[in-house]
Amino acid sequence: MKVAIVASEAAPFAKTGGLADVVGALPKALFRLGHEPVLIMPYYRSVARLNLPLEEAARIRVPIAGEVQHGRVLQGQLPGADCPVYFLEQAAYYDRAGLYNDNGVDFPDNCARFAFLSRGAIEAVRAIDFDAQLFHMHDWQSALVAPYLRLLYGNDPLGRAGTLLTIHNLSYQGVYPGWDMDTIGIDRRHYNMREFEFWGNLSLLKAGILYSGVVNTVSPSYAREIETPEFGCGMEGVLRDRDADLHGVVNGIDDSVWNPAGDPFLSSTYGPDDLSGKVAAKRSLLRHCGFTGRKAPLAGMVTRLAHQKGLDILAAALPELFQQTALQCVILGDGDNGIRASLEQLAARFPGRLAVFFGHDERLAHRIIAGADLCLVPSRFEPCGLTQLYALKYGTVPVVRWTGGLKDTVCDCAPESLAAGKATGFQFADATPQALTACVIRALDLYRDPRAWTRLMLNGMTQDWSWEASARHYLDLYAEARQSRGTA
Ligand code: ADP
Ligand code: GLC
């Protein structure tokens, strides 16, 4: 199938979180299954700095706020696959330091920037003569592709292409004032409850949900959760209306990037048959943290610094854990400055027990996932979560909150599940420091039994979370999406 994948980030070109990992990996998996995907994304300043070998494939003209914006379509390739990537170059929109914001403050013209991505993607597909049978959009930034196709390209063969919208995180909804209908270039008569209007504003995500043939999230549990007020972020009614077309597909692992047997960021690689490289990875991580005492259990967390991720829950649990156990902890994070400041203070209180590093650091992310004994994911909600999946593959036992994709990917360790070879980690139900503390203590009790612990590690390491199964699931949804028109 010919599939145009449109997204605002993709590894290894531009990344703020797991969305990039998914968008970088899925086209390669589709390609390996014999399909013809192309990826379309913005040409950010950070992409330009990579000095990729690119060729101009086309020029596009995109009406935004009643004016024509010009752009260039630059063709490159996804590393490790014969799969084309088309970067939309538009300097006024994308030649900036951040992807979405400057120092935590969203760019004021994000609505225009991502309307340009969505309509520009359709224009690019036309200009390069790619006969797309399906457009696969990701989150609010490319959600407008579906309404654009229906409302503005009805006379074009592309207007008949199927549409699938993947929601990676419902808490980001692309909400703007109603007058931005003019920015996106859609007639104001579509500003109503059944289309673009959302609690008195315009929501790009809502329009995408209602206009797309099929919608999915990144785990079955999160797909059900978002139909409830607790997780629905005000969109639960809209999602319940689309219940029959709302699916959950768990993300996979791109093992050309995340694989302890060939990880270029590690000084010695390892696998289930020989764990000595993991011991070396821990030693080197401890040195990096300035920690001594190799026998103590080491917990790691790699995360965006956002309320979602429960860093405040962890910060409130750590003093008690440091008092009751020998635990050491390392956190790598990027994002909110307030969360950063509180972690810095905590690290200053507990030298030798807590090390914190800030910024986006791919190399350190790999070293933590490999070198830690436990991987902490105390999220308030988690659509899928990737660090616990990477941790499983690296023999680092996940300690996760029982929510969303964390529910679907980690099997809690109890005597029966361990004996049955099923247990892979530890789960706790309540989003409280007490529940997290009790769960870590439960994990550390098992850690004292090296044979049982190794068994738990190996259970996780030998699971198959490769992209192939998820890509096949997406192909089924593509087929379904080609038969469906959405409900708008
Ligand atoms: P989310 O997409 O909500 O941020 P995921 O667990 O799905 O959460 O994906 C997070 C991805 O981002 C993982 O690949 C993780 O390694 C990476 N990551 C998060 N924070 C950092 C950071 N500060 N430096 C490097 N990589 C990071
Ligand atoms: C989002 C979610 C995360 C998910 C990722 C990739 O950022 O927060 O749970 O793994 O997207 O789908």
Question: How do the strands and helices of this protein lay out in sequence?
Answer:
Layout: E1 2-6, H1 18-32, E2 36-42, H2 45-48, E3 55-64, E4 67-77, E5 84-89, H3 91-94, E6 101-102, E7 105-106, H4 110-127, E8 134-138, H5 139-143, H6 145-152, E9 162-167, E10 175-176, H7 180-184, E11 197-198, E12 201-203, H8 204-211, E13 214-217, H9 220-225, H10 236-241, E14 246-248, H11 276-289, E15 298-305, H12 311-324, E16 328-335, H13 337-349, E17 354-358, H14 362-371, E18 374-377, H15 387-393, E19 397-401, H16 404-409, H17 415-419, E20 426-428, H18 433-447, H19 450-461, H20 467-481
Parallel strand pairs: 1-2, 1-8, 2-5, 8-9, 9-13, 13-14, 15-16, 15-18, 16-17, 18-19, 19-20
Antiparallel strand pairs: 3-4, 4-5, 6-7, 10-12, 11-12
The chain binds adenosine-5'-diphosphate (ADP) and alpha-D-glucopyranose.
Classify the secondary structure makeup into a structural class: alpha/beta
Percentage of helical residues? 25-40%
Query: Can you identify the CATH superfamily of the largest domain?
Result: Glycogen Phosphorylase B
Total strand count, please? Answer: 20
> What CATH architecture of the largest domain do you see?
3-Layer(aba) Sandwich
Ligand inventory reads: adenosine-5'-diphosphate, alpha-D-glucopyranose
**Apparent shape:** globular
- Average predicted confidence as pLDDT: 97
Describe the sheet with the most strands. 9 strands, mixed
- CATH C-level category of the largest domain: Alpha Beta
Beta-strand proportion: 15-25%
Taking the alpha carbons of the first and last residues, their distance comes to 26 Å
Radius of gyration using CA atoms only? 23 Å
Q: What strand line-up does the widest sheet have? A: 3-4-5-2-1-8-9-13-14
Give the domain tally.
2
Helix count?
Answer: 20
